[in-house]
Every structure is written in structure tokens, then in C-alpha cells.
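Researcher: We're teaching a course module on how sequence relates to structure. For the next exercise, students receive a sequence and then see the predicted structure as C-alpha cells, so they can try to spot secondary structure elements on their own. Here is the exercise chain.
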Amino acid sequence: MQPNRPNKLLVNDVVLDNDALRVKVHGEWRTIEVKQLALLYLLIDNIGQTVTRDTIITTLWPDIIVSDNSVSQLVVQLRKTLGDNKNKPRFIKTVPRLGYQLIADVSDAPELTETLLAPQVNRPIYWLFAGLIIGMSALQLVNSQIFDTLQTAEYTYQSRLTASPGAEVFLRYSPNGRYLAFSHVGKNQEQFDLSVIDMKTQSLHNLKSTGYSEEAPVWSADGKWLAYYRYDPFSCTVRVFSVENAIEMWRLSPENTLFECDPAHGPLPIFWPTDTALYTQQWQESGIQVKHHEVLSSSGMRVSNTTLLPSDIGYLKDINTETGELLFSQLINGKQHLFKGRVEGGNITKRVLSNDTRGPSVWNKVVGSYVFGEHALKSVNQQGDEQLIYQPNGVITDIAVDLQGGHIAHSEGEAQVSLYHFDTRSQSITAELNAVSSPAKLDIMAEISEDGNWFAFASYGPQRQLGYTQVEIWIKHRQRDTANLLTMLPRNVFPNQLLLSPQGDNLLIVSEAGDVYLINLFSKKLITIIQDFKELRNIYWSDDGRSINYQAKQAAGQWQLWQYSLNELNNRLIERDPLKLERYKPVLAAQNVSFESFQSDVASYLLKHTKNEVDPKQLQASLRLYTPALFNEGIYYVLRQGHQLYLYCYYSQRQENIRIRSIGLYLYDISVPLSLSTDWLGSHILFNRVDGIETDIVLHRFNSATQ
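Model: And here is the predicted structure for the students to work with:
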């Protein structure tokens, strides 16, 4: 019997993640095969001792006859995964004619507070700097060939500031660049703690760890105050405390509550560009509303007045502390457009910077330039010229710029997004959910056939650069244990929607570009059936599953109704008069997210019938996270309460709203689509969720000599 092991181990400098079947080598996550992992654990269990080839064979291949060559090949593969060298081993030593021995140091993977410690009193600070300089020089020497091709002349990769289980997000530099504040959630934690790194001493200080969730810190313009959101399951407040004294005393500073906020939504960034102006933003039914708060510090920090900014700003990304210029984004035709602008006379004047910018964006040191990135960290100057700064390991979740020194810190990492099945007829509400997929990739777009027998989903790696990865489409029969790969989409094609036919024998794949693909579950032949239209909407299967109805608009044209026939393998025009299209629209229960008003219609229906039981703001926020799933008797939907996710069902005929069960946590907003699907009888529910986020903070030094 195997001993109980922690989910993560540190083997020399390699982090081993048992649950996700991966290892982090030189700051990069790699997949480790099951057999390699089994061999590594066998060596760990017998650390310092020789494990014979016979022991390896009988343990790893108990019922199969294999040769010594199988052992040799497995050791070669494991060494390659760990980055080990047979001639100069750091992990696995060959014992001639006997077997192998693990010579590495093994310990639990360190938590954040163990990876960044303040210097000891009896350790002179210059020795710390000497060690830091030597370590960074060695790191730069080893990686110089890699980073020379990735870095611009303006920036130099320096180091990772954190390397521990969990996520570091909401990064903010202090105005003088001395401190970096952020929120951290560790392994198996449900709440964020508030931490600060002293960039001068490279020491970490945990300021708030109360059992509540402390998120999204922001410094006052003079650097004397630090504000943040404090969440519990039922309330939210914005709090502030003084940071004028020594950093060791900050956690003891008394707090003021500035105002209450909406606990139904995750925090959106706060901005404090001047001593007396604080900006917050909050989701409303019509979108994001930005508020300006006048703050006074004469008798303890307090808010004296609050006004609303124009409603058409959208998502506020940053405010330039020198010019007051706003950086904000708006979703237009399914893409995030990035703007800069100013508020003048109650109106916003704006200019578009980009028609498709994903991920975080912040102003840079030079006025008018900015830094952005999701799958690559890039800078854009005043003329709009774009430069690559760094290619991350995973996805960039947050960016902070030291406006004094020009240095850039960002958090990067990976999320685990897996698919789960819940049988409403037989499973206990407290039973473990049935995992449909592994956490090795991001699994999205859950789809169930009408009879509940077939599950479909899309899967992709954490990086989505053009040409870097292909999206996989998987299929699983409900009564089978494992899913099977159905097809791989062409490169650069990312799905926007999956639709199984009523009989479950064909799958429709709608891409972000508006092309539609069809694949039969048994022949596995992928064909393109709809393309070259400017826009598509209202896509649905006929009842017999032999045709696909959809509305399409050609360039400078009007909406028309079309139909693709599986029997004739062609598209034909059904109705060209846009005034007559409404008559072909199916009932709400037969619609899906491709219908223009589907989400607003479902939201209005739920808000009307659950208003006495569910907080409307909380419901609106949750419906943006998970699209509800309709079936013949009602609607399944997910409600986010604090960081907890609950599955609810509103039964239309009975007019009854029931909380079914908890389905997990949602700690931080990431750009991964979450979905909920059910069969026509509502017997089976398929959904994906974020099971974990692993991020580290990375530092890039600004080379002032290049300016």
C-alpha cells in the first residue's frame, strides 16, 4: 500500500505536482507520464537505497513480462523530464549491475511565506545582496540564449519573486516603487491574504490573514495609505489603513471602513490617482459602473462625496497619475476593444488603441505608452509600435508597472479547468462529483445530448498563441468510463459553441470566426458546412437531427434564414425577408447561447420568479459567470455566494426555487469560458469549473540606459 503523500513535493529544485501529472523544471511546467511518476515515487520511497531492476519490473509491470530494456528506457525518459544528466546526475544515480538510486533532496513544496523570508538579524544585508547578485548572474548566464530572443533592449528579465503553491494576483506597486502589494491564496485555502514584498530587501510581509478574503489592494497617491476589498460570504467593505510607519508595524495599523461594496461580484480594480480621488467600479445590469469617491484624511480617512462617471466607460484598466488619462476596455462584437480617454463635462472623449486586446493592460512609465498581455507580455509606445517583452510560462493574469523606475512585475501561471457530471436521479447532494476529464488541459464548453447519453467538450493547452496549439474535441458516452478524442480542430480555429444533435450522432462546432463545422461521432470526419458570412446567429438543430437552421448576414446585407441539409449536403435560403424571421424562432427552452436575446431573456425570467429568494445583483453577476441550462421542467443555474458556487434549479410549473448542492469554488476571474449543460429531462448535468490557479510573480528590470 502506498503511503499518504502530499500533492506537491520539491525534488531538488523541481516541483512535483502529483494531482496534475506535471513537474516544474526551471520555472516551466512539463507533463510527466504515469509510469515515470510511478518510478519516481518508487525511488522516493526508497531514497538513498538502491532499487533493483527486478523490483522496478515487479512493481511497475506486475502482470506483464517485460525486459530490462523497458526499465532502461523508462529511466531515460524520467531523466529527460527532470532535466537530469546520466554522466553528472543530480536526481537518479545508476548503480552498475544492480539498479538505480535517488540522490536528490526531497521535501514538501514550500508555501509562499517560506520562499520569501526577511533577512535574519545576524545576517548582514550586503551578504543577501551578494547572494542575490550571484544567483541572478548565474540565472541570466544559463538562460541568456533564450531570453536574448524574447527581451527587448528596454527590459531585462530578472527573476521570479515567488515560486510556491497557490496564486498571486492583484499586483500594485507603491508610488515610489519600493513595495509591491498583492493578494495571495495558498493551496487548499478559500480566502485571499494581503501581502507586500519590500523590493529593496527582497522580503515578504503578510499584512492581513484574518480568515476573511482581502483582495485588490491599492496605494494612495502619496503612498501613505493602503486600501483593499474585504469579503465574507454575506458582505463586502472597502477598508484602508496607514502605512506611514515601519513595514513591520503595518499589520497593526488601525483600519477605517470607507464604504460598503457589493458582495455578489468579485472585486474590480480600485484606483487612487490623487490624494483626494478614489475610483471604484461595480457591475450593474447594464454593465460596469465607475464611481468617483472624494476622500479626506483630515480626521482619519473617510469618503465625503460619491459621483457616477459616464456609463459608457466600460472596464477601467488604469488611470495615469500624471495626466489623469483613463485606460479602459469595452466588449464590441465579441472582442475587447482597448481605449484611452478623459472625462470632460460629464462626457467621455475616447480614442481606440486596439480592436482586440486580451488580458490585463496598464499604463507604462512613458506617458502615452502602455503594457498589456495574456499569452505574451508586450509594450506599445506613443506611436502604436508594439514590442515583445517576454513570453510567459502559461497565461499572464496581472501586470504592475513601477512608474518611478519603469520596472514591470507580472503574475503568470496556469489554471486547472476540469469537467464534472452530476446525476440528479441517483447521486447524493453530498457525494463526490464525477470527474469527466483530467486537469492536464483546460476543458470547456460542456454539452449534453437531449437523451443525456453523450457528453462533448473542447480541450486546449494554457497558451493560445496563433499556431501554438490545436483545440481538441472530446466525446464520452455516459455509461463508459473514459472520454475519447473525436477530432483536432485546424490550427487557429477556436470554438465558440458546441451543439449535439437531438439523437447524439452528430456534433456542430461554431468557431469564434463564425465558421461552422460538422462531425459525425462514428465516422469522425470533420467537414466545414457554413462559412463566408459576416455574422451568424440563432443556430439550432431540427427535431429530426437532419438539418441545421441558422440566421446569417452577408456583408452590407440583412439577416436571412438559411438551412443546411445533412441529406443533401448543401445550404439553401429559407427566408430572405427579415420581418418574417421571428415566426421561425423556437420557444425559449429550445434556444441556446447563439440566440441574440437568449441570455437576457433567461435572466429576466429568473429575476422575475426568484426575486423574493435570491439577491438580484448576486444573480445577475452569477449569470455572467455561467450561462443557465434549460430543460423541460425548468432552469438550472449557478449562484456565486462569496467564493462558493451553488447549483440551483427553478422549476417552472411548480414555481419552486431549490438549491441543489455546492459545486466548488471560484476564487479569481480568468479568461476561460465556464458552461453548464443538461439533457431535456434534466436528469444529467455537465459543467466545468476552475479547480486551481497556480501563478508566480515575475520581475523585469527597466534598462534606463536605453532611453
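Model: If you want an answer key for the exercise: Helices lie at 34-45, 53-60, 68-82, 112-115, 125-148, 598-610, 616-625. Residues 125-148 form the longest helix (24 residues).
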